[in-house]
UniProtKB/TrEMBL annotation:
It comes from the Bacteria. One of its GO terms (molecular function) is 4 iron, 4 sulfur cluster binding. PANTHER family: FERREDOXIN-TYPE PROTEIN NAPH. This is 4Fe-4S ferredoxin-type domain-containing protein. Residues 50-88, 134-172 form the 4Fe-4S ferredoxin-type domain. GO terms for cellular component: plasma membrane. The chain crosses the membrane at residues 12-30, 42-64, 100-119, 125-144, 244-261, 312-335, 347-366, 386-404, 411-433. Keywords: 4Fe-4S, Electron transport, Iron, Iron-sulfur, Membrane, Metal-binding, Transmembrane, Transmembrane helix, Transport. InterPro entries: 4Fe4S_Fe-S-bd (IPR017896), Electron_Trans/Redox (IPR051684).
Amino acid sequence: MARHAGAIQAFQWVMVAVYLLLVTVPAFLPPPDDSKHIWDNLVLFAQFAFWGVWWPFVMVSMLVMGRAWCGVFCPEGAMTEWASRRGLGRAIPPWLRWKGWPFVAFVCTTVYGQMITVYEYPEAALLILGASTVMALGIGLVYGRGIRVWCRYLCPASGVFSLLSRLSPVHFRVDRESWEAAERVPAVACATLVDVRAMTGGGSCHMCGRCSGHRDAVTLTPRLPGSEVTSLPEREVSSWDTNLLAFGVMGVATGAFQWSGSPLYVALKQSLAAWLVERGIMFPLTETLPWWMLTNYASTGEVFTLLDGACLIAYIAAVAVTVGSITLAGLWLGARLAGRPEARWRLGYGLIPMGAVGLIIGLSSLTLTQLAAEGISFVWLPEARAGLLAVGLAWSGVLVWRLLPVERRPLAWLAAMAGAAALAGTWSLFFFVW
Ligand code: SF4
């Protein structure tokens, strides 16, 4: 990768061109009718490419090869770095380094995406992806010189990618002895501002390969999947990571995937509607908003009323608070039972596999819905989903077990696994009961 940087950059610009084509052009095409297919209509093709292939498989790629998507394939990364080479080159201000941005950005993007039905309408995709791209370019133009400030601090997906990549079976390992023994050479320019010498894991490394072989000390190395989680140095442990996992990945994302198929959402809406009608308050049932605030597409007849929007937000918030609180309470209790109350944030990293499985089965549901519309379905789906949930639970179980002190394990383990059990229960209910 270090030797073929030119080829990688050329490939990144191909990705930029394809991305810009697929995100802009469909928004200006007429909506497809029922006779159209993924292979003969650009709107459906772009929809499948973004939400059926790109989004779920980017998540899977994090588990397989770390953040290589970010460093090698991501068009926004390439664009923000390009802009940063030509921009003002200002110093990164403290507010921009706030560790809570990935959490805030992930939650806001996920909820807003549901409000405007981003997975189905190209205008909505252009709005959300386009806004993100414009912000990436703007941040690149103002801050840093030849670096990816956007990717490191602000990208809505960066926090999730960082969590998932910690499970990956490969990383760039730094051999400190070789590093110290090597002759002095110019420092490697890591675009994502990783301190390569002190790097111990893959959470921030974008796997771009530019430091590969540096000082004969940096090598792409296999490792036991998840081993980074159980050997995380203290300086890498962050309460923001655990909160993002508990409330964002396991909470908000789950609510966003499930609300439209949930009988609880329907019951909530019906009871609220009845309550409003009884009191003669009709406007929440009839008023709508522009499509860029709340789904409103006369062409397909899909229009959300204020009540729809309010119920959608309330449902996602309720799932987030319920699953997130169970997760944090379980971690808190588990850490106390283990005699190490301060370890609750670290224990949370053990739940990453379960969170990853939740994301993957949620996102792949979109893929399967799109394929079903083309007449392609899979009879083994229930077994595959049950199997994935079992793998997530088991993998998290092993990591949490290993994160606990040997002498205080069983009870502490049961408590710390509460969040994983809650998430598995939510998905089981969704797929096998509802
Ligand atoms: S640490 Fe090395 S491989 Fe990782 S992003 Fe920085 S330069 Fe690229």
